[in-house]
Write a structure and sequence with these properties.
The protein is built from 7 helices and 12 strands. The chain is of the alpha/beta class and about 240 residues long.
Length: about 240
């Protein structure tokens, strides 16, 4: 049984049907790539899985470790082990990175992590992602570059340690050095305790993160699945081969 299972999912937003019977699964210790052109429904799927109220599920189920979470609120899904990395991370004025992450971790664990222990974990993960320690005292994402915001998303992932990460166009806006750093971070974290759904319409991040399986979405439907070679084929021939 996969840790995350999407079964025959239909989703509407603003009265328009976006997803039309999506079936998809993700397990720990694997990276699943979801590819497709802009407007195909990839981000809608991520938001629907996470429980965004704007996206109404009209049919189908979302299962996490066999538990039906289709109607659970966002916070409960997060506590059960889901994580969403945004394409455009928000700035949060007045809340420092360290306070934000420690509060989130305490909420997820249901217990209080000591300040000293938390700083050890935080600084260790920041070093891996080449994030200067002074960023811990800055407001979340405020004044950060695009690459710094994406590194901060992976830092959150490393500290919170969810079971399944939904990474929505994590490669968007990254220069080549930041892309390598973020990809290395994701590769380091994937393992027996974490699986990832990597959403992208470019293949460049897949040059650094090899997916175990590739799904292709067109017009709200999964139209093709395959291995890592499918991503290379799409790079060479475009989405016309599956549309």
């Amino acid at each position: 049984m996969s840790n995350l299972e999407i079964r025959d999912l239909y989703v509407k937003t603003e009265g328009k049907e976006i997803l039309k019977g999506v079936n998809l699964s993700v397990s720990k210790n694997e990276v699943i790539a979801l590819m497709g052109p802009n407007g195909s429904g990839k981000s809608t799927l991520a938001y629907a899985i996470m429980g965004h109220p704007k996206y109404k599920i009209t049919k189908g189920k979302i299962l996490l470790n066999g538990k039906d979470i289709t109607n659970l609120p966002v916070n409960k899904r997060a506590k059960l082990g889901l994580f969403l990395g945004f394409q455009y991370p928000s700035e949060i004025q007045g809340i420092s990175v360290v306070n934000f992450l420690r509060t989130a971790l305490n909420s997820a664990k249901g217990s209080s992590v000591s300040v000293l222990d938390f700083y050890k974990v935080l600084y260790n993960e920041m070093a891996k992602l080449k994030i200067p320690q002074e960023f811990a005292q800055r407001s979340v994402n405020e004044g950060f570059s695009g690459g710094e915001k994406k590194k901060m998303e992976i830092l959150q992932l490393a500290v919170l340690k969810p079971q399944i990460a939904l990474l929505d166009e994590t490669d968007s806006g990254l220069d080549i050095d930041a892309l390598r750093t973020v990809a290395d971070g994701i590769n380091t974290l994937i393992g027996p305790e974490l699986g990832a759904l990597l959403i992208t319409h470019y293949t460049r991040i897949l040059n650094y993160i090899k997916p175990h399986k590739v799904y292709v979405m067109i017009d709200g439907k999964i139209v093709k699945t395959g291995g890592a070679d499918l991503a290379k084929e799409l790079e060479e021939k475009g989405y016309e081969i599956v549309s």
